[in-house]
Amino acid sequence: MNAEKKIRIAIQKSGRLFEDSIGILKECGIDINTGLNKLKAEASNFPMEVFFLRDDDIPQYVQDGVADIGIVGENVLIEKNKNVKKVEQLGFGKCRLSIALPKGKTYKGPGDLQGLKIATTYKTILAGFLKKEKIKAEIHEISGSVEIAPGIGLADGICDLVSSGSTLFMNGLKEVQVILKSEAVLIQNKELKKDQLDLLSKLVFRLQAVKKSKKNKYILLNAPNKNLDRIVKILPGMKSPTILPLAEKGWSSVHSVVHEDEFWEIIEALKANGAQGILVIPIEKMIV
Ligand code: PRT
Ligand code: ZN
């Protein structure tokens, strides 16, 4: 294959985003051979080369054009503040960057952080937050195990990523202030050539189809013909529902797509209107 017509993507080498990054590409029909200790791999069925890197380095590599695109947590993207473009939210790696204080401390608002020493690996984001809130606090930058800092007297509080909250709990800390909500995002170099832009738009098209399919379900049900008008109104579908006659007279089979946000309300309304034999099926891809 022509070396020019390839897109180079940087993903995390190992860690929390690795599996989901490989997984979402796979759902887009892109298979990557992830051997042990690899730095690079080729996709087998898409003109894509994959670089496995530390997440912290991904924004820089994409900015410098070593990779064309990358998958990284928004928290890292904002902290590193590189000149790259965010293309798409990916819906995994969800977490929040929060300030946590020892359990016994009272916290009524950012004012209670005045004069405290806060340990973090996210000094840029924390400094931005403190500045916005006009709080003077000392930022103590450390590179790992932030959660133990208050316990060993290194800091009064911390600013770190939280997902379940169990790390904070186990260290006698409580989350008092969310600064940022984050998830994995696709980023791109700002000066991509046409070939790479074309490949990126193919990838984004597939990603959107995968994301949409996860938020929607295919629904099949049997409906009495006398209630069809009402049932069709409840089920918007992609254009409108499909209606097929059943062998039993007076009944139809109705097929449609429903969004997860309104799923249960729709099921209840369908039942109230005489729908029976309701089947709900996951959708693999959705192209609208
Ligand atoms: O080696 P490399 O530098 O690539 O990896 P890393 O160790 O810096 O990052 P990694 O793999 O820990 O996280 C990668 C990305 O996953 C982060 O940048 C976030 O975007 C996302 N993410 C999602 C998380 C978490 N959830 C998370 N809970 N990253 C880290 N954590 C840590 C947090 O720092 C704390 O230590 O998990 C602990 C808290 O978890 P809970 O569940 O106890 O609250
Ligand atoms: Zn890292």
Outline the structure in words.
The chain has 288 residues and is α/β, with parallel strands linked by helices. It has 3 domains: 3-91 and 183-213, Periplasmic binding protein-like II (D-Maltodextrin-Binding Protein, domain 2), CATH 3.40.190.10; 95-182, D-Maltodextrin-Binding Protein, domain 2; 216-282, Alpha-Beta Plaits (2-Layer Sandwich), CATH 3.30.70. Helix 4 links the parallel strand 7 (117-120) and strand 8. The chain has helices spanning 18-27, 58-63, 74-80, 123-132, 166-170, 194-215, 228-234, 263-272, and strands at residues 7-12, 40-42, 48-53, 69-73, 85-89, 95-102, 117-120, 138-141, 157-162, 173-182, 184-188, 216-224, 242-245, 251-259, 276-282. The chain has 8 helices and 15 strands. 27% of the residues lie in helices and 32% in strands. The strands form 3 sheets. A 6-stranded mixed sheet has the order 2-3-1-4-11-5. The radius of gyration is 25 Å and the shape is globular. Bound molecules: phosphoribosyl ATP (PRT) and zinc ion (ZN). Residues 54-56 line the site of zinc ion (ZN).
List segments where confidence is low: pLDDT < 50 over at least 5 consecutive residues: none
Sheet/helix structural class: alpha/beta
Number of domains: 3
CATH top level assignment of the largest domain: Alpha Beta
Helix/strand order: EHEEHEHEEEHEEHEEHEHEEHE
Major beta sheet summary: 6 strands, mixed
CATH fold annotation of the largest domain:
D-Maltodextrin-Binding Protein, domain 2
Please state the overall shape, judged from the principal axes of the Cα atoms.
Answer: globular
Q: What is the share of helical residues?
A: 25-40%
Small molecules held by this entry? phosphoribosyl ATP, zinc ion
Question: Reading side by side through the largest sheet, how are the strands ordered?
Answer: 2-3-1-4-11-5
Going by CATH, the architecture of the largest domain would be 3-Layer(aba) Sandwich
Strand content: 25-35%
Helix run count: 8
CATH homology superfamily of the largest domain:
Periplasmic binding protein-like II
End-to-end Cα distance, whole Å, is: 31 Å
Radius of gyration: 25 Å
Mean pLDDT reading: 94
Total strand segments: 15
